[in-house]
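Sat 14:20. Reprocessing the chain from the morning session after the first attempt stalled halfway. Input below, unchanged.
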Amino acid sequence: MSLHVGDYGARKMADSSKIFTDLPAALVENVLKKTAELGEKLLAGFEQQKKDRKLIRKRLEEVGLLIKDSSLDYPPLPTTCAVDGSYGLERLLTNDLAAAAAVAVEGLTPPSEQRYWETPRYKSIVFSEIHHEKTATILRSAMIGEELLLATKAPHSLVFLDFTLALPLIYLNQGFSAAGITLDLDVSNYLINKSINYLQAYRDILHSLRSDHQYIGIPKYSTKREISKVLGLPSKYDDRGLLTLILEAGELTKPLPMEKPNQQWHLTVAPLDKRRREAEVLVDEIIKFIQNIHVLYYKPHDWLPAFRIEIADSIAKNWHRLAIILHGIKHQCATPSIMEPYPLYLADRTVKALACALPAFRQITTQRIAEMYRGDIGEIYIAMHGYRTEEGR
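Finished this time. Tokens:
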């Protein structure tokens, strides 16, 4: 299944040019007025952060959290890839069309690399389901599970994950819980049957025991504030935004334990029969390893924001493995026009096309049904009419 349908970027630009077409003029004027007020408030915050920058940087140095990447080893350039996924749910009159995909994209290849990775480097799942409110939740869990499987099968030294390392636990917990009460859905049975594989892959990523495989989470957004809390800063400071202003090119923060949630980590076991005990052991290991996740921020170049990097405890305590990660990230950020590591950018563009492609899949399916239907063809087109598309990543 190809996830690219036309030029996604061109379509987005065309859509943005018509963004105000269906809105009342008075509403647009009112919103624009409020955005001006919001801009003044944000400007005041930026100016305050600029004023405090030197003091906060000095505090980082005093507590020993500031490191130069040049102080670490200079390992050989690692091979890299990124994994990302998306899902879409087309709500039809009579049923739902559910689709999800996970893709793996290789990064810029070192000159001497001759490694072969068999294709396909993606996994797609498509189901026709009855209407149910839990379908999207279960589909999203299957999507994140397939991402984990692709990541652990990648023959690369450095694998980028476009999410916080705690996210799979949340998605899988929600999906397993919902699947247990929706066994009439095909996607539920799919998730249950693959649950052991998903848990094994997640355990391996959180453990990261093999020194030739580094798995890192690079979320674009996080509410965690590990650095700010160590420095005693008020809640108005966001770690990534603050460190983007403070860190210079080639600087990083010392790895710190990831901020713990208010409640204990919890992962429901999928409703398995014969392999339930195996799943319970895997869940116990996952809960153990996720509590030892470490976080650091790294700014490879002046033109980039600081990246939040989440790593296993086994990597955080090994400076050589940490140097491999930093070396790989810097090499994959080769141009100012891309604000993230190159393979993450490519994987993101690929999966975004899935939701756009769902109506096309529905149209093709409708045409094939109509060719074989012996009744009133109008009934087919009404039944297959799409009312709403839900999507996510």
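Residues 1-14 have pLDDT under 50 and may be disordered.
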